Amino acid sequence: MLRLIDRTPGDPRLGLAIDEALFEAGRLGGEAAIRFWVNDRAVVIGRSQSAADEVDLDAADELKVPVLRRISGGGAVVHYPGNLNVSVILRATDGLGSVGEVFRAFGEAVASALASRGPVRVEDNALVLDGAKIAGAAQARRGDTILYHTTLLLEPDEIPMNRWLRALRSGYAPHGVASRPRRTTTLSEHAGNAVDVEPIIDAISVAVGQCLGEAIRDAKVGGAVLDRARELRDAKYGEDAWNLAR
What we know:
Layout: E1 2-10, H1 12-27, E2 33-39, E3 42-45, H2 51-54, H3 57-62, E4 67-69, E5 77-79, E6 83-91, H4 99-113, E7 120-123, E8 126-129, E9 132-142, E10 145-153, H5 187-191, H6 197-212, E11 217-219, H7 223-237, H8 240-243
Parallel strand pairs: 1-2, 1-11, 3-4
Antiparallel strand pairs: 2-6, 3-5, 6-10, 7-8, 8-9, 9-10
């Protein structure tokens, strides 16, 4: 299983495109992968959501924050450099095939990796620490290939999430798939100090590898996958026709 790490905050369009390119490669027989990555600020909505229902588009435009649609389901999330995104691409196997099984297995793996930081619990597609959400997850599935990704809140953002997300405001009434708002916290706020991300990456790597029975080796995103990701960035994630439809 490949481990792909890029902690430098990057273009969120390319960040989402790399996930999709890896997912496509997995469908064509590519090796399973776990990816750790960080985006510059963006608001990211689920595949079946309405951008206008979920995001204050005027606020996003004012501060030049892109509103992007991912290929997986679920609700809206804010990406910013204080997050750590974790993606897993694999083929479905016995005992790890259904949506619920995947959320439970990888949620428990990440929770176990964070156990030293407090009583992290898995609740559906979320990770909860002392009653507050620290991560939400989503999936995309094509045939027997699965993309699971989660956004782990490490450090607080200087801009509150309700600046962007309508689900955190009164009167929220979406026409498409609804987000499920709840109180959030970050690992650094819970601990009262800054978070060292390297041990977290290593612990999650070990836990996911054990969950899947896979040995993990470090690699880089490059070659055909990176070329395809750049195509997707320009032709899909850089276009309002994909991001702002519905």
